[in-house]
From TrEMBL, chain A:
Organism from which the protein derives: Orenia metallireducens
Domain Thiamine pyrophosphate enzyme central: 193-326
CDD domains: TPP_AHAS, TPP_PYR_POX_like
Catalytic activity, EC: 2.2.1.6
GO molecular function terms noted in the UniProt entry: acetolactate synthase activity; flavin adenine dinucleotide binding; magnesium ion binding; thiamine pyrophosphate binding
Alphabetically ordered keywords of this record: Amino-acid biosynthesis, Branched-chain amino acid biosynthesis, FAD, Flavoprotein, Magnesium, Metal-binding, Thiamine pyrophosphate, Transferase
Protein name per its UniProtKB record: Acetolactate synthase
Higher taxonomy: Bacteria, Bacillati, Bacillota, Clostridia, Halanaerobiales
Keyword Membrane: no
From TrEMBL, chain B:
GO cellular component: cytosol
SUPFAM superfamilies referenced in this protein's UniProt entry, alphabetically: ACT-like
Organism from which the protein derives: Orenia metallireducens
An example Gene Ontology molecular-function term: acetolactate synthase regulator activity
GO biological process, one term: L-valine biosynthetic process
Residue span, ACT domain: 4-78
Function, in words: Catalyzes the conversion of 2 pyruvate molecules into acetolactate in the first common step of the biosynthetic pathway of the branched-amino acids such as leucine, isoleucine, and valine.
InterPro entries recorded: Acetalactate_synth_ssu, Acetolactate_synth/TF_NikR_C, Acetolactate_synth_ssu_C, ACT-like_dom_sf, ACT_dom, AHAS_ACT, AHAS_small-like_ACT
Keywords attached to this entry: Amino-acid biosynthesis, Branched-chain amino acid biosynthesis, Transferase
Catalytic activity field: 2 pyruvate + H(+) = (2S)-2-acetolactate + CO2
Protein's recorded name: Acetolactate synthase small subunit
Length: 578, 159
């Protein structure tokens, strides 16, 4: 009988799970693992902050559909995962995070670099483990991967004390999983599916409201079939973008707070809402009482806890979206809905009016994103941070395929997109990857420029530079009487108090992103004129190296349409007040 | 409305913390909770009493079900059940009041489990009402200390 150390069992177990890439940051308690990794076949990507590592694992998982793996040391290494775990938990991303822990004998003594990471992460992981015995390690790893990727996916954390990594045991990788408390339901109830088909066949003005669950379940083809067969328009949530080709005439784009006019008005006037793999988030529904107020609601979701959580549902179907849609598509009837679609077309025109801007001198974000869209034909993989640029990226890029838009939808994590793009590029070597960021959020994980440079990742980093935390500024403009409290990134002590008139006279206190990129050996360019947009983007896309583009955009550009917080979807602010 | 919920969970370290933290972060208030092993060493039973509408209870049940350590949940509220709590009450007693206290305990089928020169400790089991009733009767004598367990419950018959 050959005995392996815990660290060796860790590596062998990951081989068994088919893991290829680990996003990890070394530290004292995980040296035994790093010692084994030294001779292993894994590609190891070292971020420059553990938060960057877990977001990279998240981007890798979202873009490839595989489980993202990250590894950190105990204490601060582990606690630096918290934001990344919460981000992945909210958007149902499969991640297995390994953390080192102090030796068992020192547990609970406030030892050096000790943190109760299982206690800390219980509310933001699907499940977590503290390994108390090396004999349990392989079983726990097997269970963790199973839990992370099945049912409604989510992050799982495994905390391993250092002495468990050094102890020896026989390596046996279990064939079977024994988790009596974990039985995800994949099969939708047949009668309910029939009931849903009947409702769809009888409806005149149905709308499909499709969420991230459609992408997770790999059900884009089935979704398209349903929409096409029954002529039903499709709106998607932020995390659902790409599940339905936005170049299709049935696409309504995104719905919700910054959704399209046609999507929000279609929801408000629908007689049937078919919610698929979506969870009625408050940024989607606006005022709950008036959301789809005249519609019968069908809700298909794998997580029973999401059904009826925020909105009562007429026809709930719990199970895997792909399987349910496959059955549903067989019983749904073809139907002409040209009247309803014509009505929607009229609403579409309202949208176009709201997006025309002519009075501004600096670059418009819409122009930039539309140029990226044209140059990449909706084929690029795009990540964003959180804020205005995120909404512009959602509105103006026309996503054509699933797993092409990686963004923190549920938690709204600034600092997510850039490190996530590292994972996306690592997992999709030949794809064109764009990391879109605001000048505020880019600085949240700016250290990952080093990771990009070191690994020669041909990322296209695009900064929408307006000198502001733009989305908060927009809210302050609209709802707080332009009192720009702490949102100006250029603000200095010498500035007049209560300034709300930014401009070229302002001091420069945000970093010069071009010089910053160059300091890491990354090519970069600042773009200030409209005619420079396309050539700069083309150069970046065609370059085999990482490229940072710093676009100086209108300081006070807003995101429209907008449903004011707590408002009804049919009551949008379409454009700037004159 | 008050609900009595019985939850079978894995008998592992940290399970109670998972359940309790789920309650706090979802804003559900636990009125009483008792926990102990079942006849199976690997499974513990938690009996919870929570206040809330049927909708609140439905959400709570679904959220509890999502925890990997939870095996089974039953809502006993509308079932025919036997439910019990236990209280230990230390009440002031003098030579003159002692017999009166003993009479009350007797009526409630409680037990005297300790006698000291100036106090008596009473053990009482029963449903909530019964325990509250004896508590009220003993209060005039002066209650020095009181401890009550959470409620435990089990459905009658085959279930």
């Amino acid at each position: 009988m050959t005995l392996l150390t815990g660290a060796q069992i860790f590596v062998e177990s990951l081989y068994k799970e088919g893991v290829e890439i680990i996003f990890g940051y070394p530290g004292g308690k995980v040296i035994p693992i790093y010692d084994v990794l030294y001779d292993s076949k894994f590609k190891h990507i070292m971020p420059h902050h553990e938060q960057g590592g877990i977001h990279a694992a998240d981007g890798y998982a979202r873009s490839t559909g595989k489980v993202g793996v990250c590894l950190t040391t105990s204490g601060p290494g582990a606690t630096n995962l918290v934001t990344g775990l919460a981000t992945a938990y909210m958007d149902s991303v499969p991640i297995v995070a390994f953390t080192g822990q102090v030796p068992r004998a020192m547990l609970g003594t406030d030892a050096f670099q000790e943190a109760d990471i299982t206690g800390i992460t219980t509310p933001i992981t699907k499940h977590n483990y503290l390994v108390q015995d090396v004999k349990d390690l392989s079983r726990i790893i097997k269970e963790a991967f199973h839990i992370a990727k099945t049912g409604r996916p989510g992050p799982v954390l495994i905390d391993i004390p250092k002495d468990v990594l050094q102890e020896e045991a026989e390596f046996v990788y279990p064939n079977k999983i024994n988790l009596p408390g974990y039985k995800p339901n994949y099969e939708g109830h047949e009668l309910q599916i029939k009931e849903a088909a009947k409702a769809i066949n009888e409806s005149k003005n149905p709308v499909i409201y499709s969420g991230g669950g459609v992408i997770i379940s790999e059900a884009s083809d089935e979704l398209r079939e349903l929409a096409k067969k029954a002529n039903i328009p499709v709106t998607t949530t932020l995390t659902g973008l790409g599940a339905f080709n936005e170049r299709d005439e049935l696409s309504l784009g995104m719905l919700g707070m910054h959704g399209t006019t046609e999507a929000n008005l279609a929801i408000s006037n629908a007689d049937l809402l078919i919610a698929i793999g979506s969870r009625f988030d408050d940024r989607v529904t606006g005022k709950l009482d008036t959301f789809a107020k005249d519609a019968k609601i069908i809700h298909i979701d794998i997580d029973p806890a999401e059904v009826g959580k925020r909105k009562l549902v007429d026809i709930p179907i719990v199970g895997d979206v792909k399987r349910i849609l496959t059955i549903l598509n067989k019983v749904v009837e073809e139907k002409d809905r040209s009247e309803w679609l014509a009505l929607i077309d009229n609403w579409r025109k309202l949208d176009e009016v709201s997006q025309v801007r002519k009075d501004k001198k600096k670059l418009s974000p819409k122009e930039i994103i539309e140029a990226i869209d044209e140059l990449t034909q909706g084929e690029a993989l795009i990540t964003t941070e959180v804020g205005q640029h995120q909404m512009w990226a959602a509105q103006f890029y026309k996503y054509t395929k699933p797993r092409s838009f990686m963004t923190s939808g549920g938690l709204g994590t600034m600092g997510y997109g850039f490190p996530a793009a590292v994972g996306v590029q690592v997992g999709n070597k030949d794809s064109v990857v764009f990391a879109l960021a605001g000048d505020g959020s880019f600085q949240m994980n700016v250290q990952e420029l080093a990771t990009v440079a070191k690994n020669k990742l041909p990322l296209n980093i695009v900064i929408f530079n307006n000198g502001y935390l733009g989305m908060v500024r927009q809210w302050q403009e609209m709802f707080y009487d332009r009192r720009y409290s702490s949102v100006c990134l250029k603000m200095q002590e010498s500035c007049p108090p209560g300034c709300s008139s930014p401009g070229d006279h302002c001091p420069v206190t945000t970093p010069d992103f071009v010089k910053l990129a160059e300091a890491y050996g990354i090519k970069a360019k600042r773009i200030t004129k409209a005619e420079e947009i396309r050539p700069a983007l083309e150069e970046a896309i065609n370059s085999p190296h990482p490229y940072l583009l710093d676009f100086i955009i209108e300081e006070e550009e807003n995101v429209f349409p907008m449903v004011p917080p707590g408002g009804s979807l049919d009551n949008m602010v379409l454009k700037e007040e004159a | 409305m008050k609900h009595t919920v019985s939850v079978l969970v894995a008998n592992e370290a940290g399970v109670l913390a998972r359940i309790a933290s789920l309650f706090s972060r979802r804003g559900f208030n636990i009125e009483s909770l008792s926990v102990g092993k079942t006849d199976n060493d690997e499974i513990s039973r938690i009996t919870l009493v929570v206040e809330g509408s049927d909708r609140v209870l439905e959400q709570l049940t679904k959220q509890l079900n999502k925890l990997i350590v939870v095996h089974k949940i039953s809502d006993l509220t509308k079932e025919s059940v036997v439910s019990r709590g236990l209280a230990l009450i230390k009440v002031k007693a003098t030579a003159t009041t002692r017999s009166e206290i003993m009479q009350i305990v007797d009526i409630f089928r409680g037990k005297i489990v300790d006698v000291a020169s100036d106090s008596i400790m009473v053990e009482i089991t029963g449903n909530e009402d019964k325990i509250t009733a004896i508590e009220e009767l003993l209060r005039p004598f002066g209650i020095k200390e009181l401890v009550r367990t959470g409620k435990i419950a089990m459905a009658r018959g085959k279930k």
